[in-house]
Design goal:
- By secondary structure, the chain is of the alpha/beta class.
- It is 45% helix and 12% strand.
- The chain starts with 5 loop residues before the first strand and ends in an 18-residue tail after the last helix.
- It has helices spanning 29-34, 46-49, 80-92, 132-140, 155-175, 181-190, 192-198, 200-211, 218-232, 239-251, 259-273, 280-292, 296-299, and strands spanning 6-11, 39-44, 60-64, 67-71, 100-103, 115-118, 125-129, 146-148.
- The strands form 2 sheets. Strands 2-1-5-8 form a 4-stranded parallel β-sheet. Strands 4-3-6-7 form a 4-stranded mixed β-sheet, with no helix packed on it.
């Protein structure tokens, strides 16, 4: 497998494959028109993989006693155990090579959350279920960035998911070679401002974890570090935290910029803070100043380019 290519798992119907119960698909324009230019998808339709035909009767999660079945509305044809077994196989074999997973929402097999669980009589439901296939993928790969197609329509969640995919891929490349404390510290330094924008406390805690480390089990340290990093990046950065981060970065150019340039940068950050312009605006200005006044430490900051600019993810946040 090419180590530079980003591989993402995808519910096959989101790719436009006609694998749904009614022979339809749920093609995701973002996945197939935008993100597809930068990643390769490995597609899965768990229901077809466990032997269900196209077309097929609908299935849903039904609670029977303490057990949840995935069966037809009349209670027959439970494929729960097969979906779990198939999910576990993908989770423990193929998913190790993935840097993210996009699931189809609301499906009793693929949905990540809030799946309807019906009572046995079919007269009511709660929305507390997790798709049987998705559950296995997430359970066995707690670091893997996962998202659903519907949630990806939210620009903040979309940006956050793609940023985590690229971060995780960066990490997977680092971890594919022998690790050292120096390598971990360098990695952490690159993520300083991105982490600050998401969770300042986590930035400090992870820095302390590495800075005070005296042991000899680098693998265990790396596991603890990456878990902390991926958890800290899970929530989108707030406008307030992004503003603070931009102001820190602005400080690097205090001496280099003219009075007018400083005012222009201050105004751009202020307009972002008040919601008048997207993050893209002050960042473009900062990147321009960085080009004119190079600084190798700042240039190494992932915050400036966490993913390809062509995705235009910072236009909408
Ligand atoms: S939601 Fe999952 S199981 Fe259902 S059609 Fe799409 S890929 Fe197949």
């Amino acid at each position: 497998m090419d180590t530079d290519t980003i591989h993402i798992g995808l519910s096959a119907c989101l790719a436009g494959e006609k694998v749904r119960f009614d022979t339809g698909h749920k093609k995701s324009n973002f996945c197939m028109n935008d993100l597809a230019k930068h990643v390769e998808y490995t597609k899965f339709c768990p229901e077809v993989a466990v032997g269900l035909p196209i077309p097929r009767p609908t299935i849903r999660q039904v609670k029977v006693g303490d057990t949840i079945k995935v069966c037809r509305p009349d209670g027959t044809g439970d494929v729960g155990p097969q979906l779990t077994q198939y999910g576990k196989k993908v989770a423990t074999e193929q998913a190790k090579n993935l840097s993210g997973f996009i699931f189809c929402a609301k499906s009793p097999s693929c949905g990540m959350e809030r799946i309807k669980i019906y009572n046995e009589a079919g007269t009511g439901n709660t929305s507390e279920g997790v798709g049987f296939f998705a559950e296995q993928i997430m359970h066995h790969n707690p670091l893997l960035p996962c998202e659903e197609n519907g949630r990806l329509n939210d620009m903040h969640l979309r940006e956050n998911f793609v940023m985590r995919v690229y971060t995780f891929k960066h990490w997977q490349k680092l971890a594919s070679e022998p690790l050292s404390l120096h390598k971990l510290t360098q990695f952490h330094a690159q993520y300083k401002y991105l982490l600050m924008a998401h969770n300042y406390q986590a930035y400090r805690d992870l820095g302390n974890l590495l800075g005070t480390y005296q042991g000899s089990d680098i693998e265990a340290l790396a596991d603890e570090y990456i878990l902390g990093l991926m958890m800290a990046l899970k929530s989108p950065a707030s406008r307030r935290n992004n503003t603070n981060t931009l102001m820190h970065l602005q400080g690097y150019f205090k001496k280099a910029l003219s009075k007018i340039e400083k005012q222009e940068l201050r105004d751009a950050i202020d307009e972002y803070r008040s919601g008048l312009v997207p993050l893209y605006v002050p960042l473009t200005l900062l990147k321009h100043h960085l080009k004119v006044h190079p600084n190798s430490y700042l240039e190494s900051q992932v915050f400036f380019n966490p993913y390809p600019n062509e995705l235009k993810l910072r236009y909408g946040i």
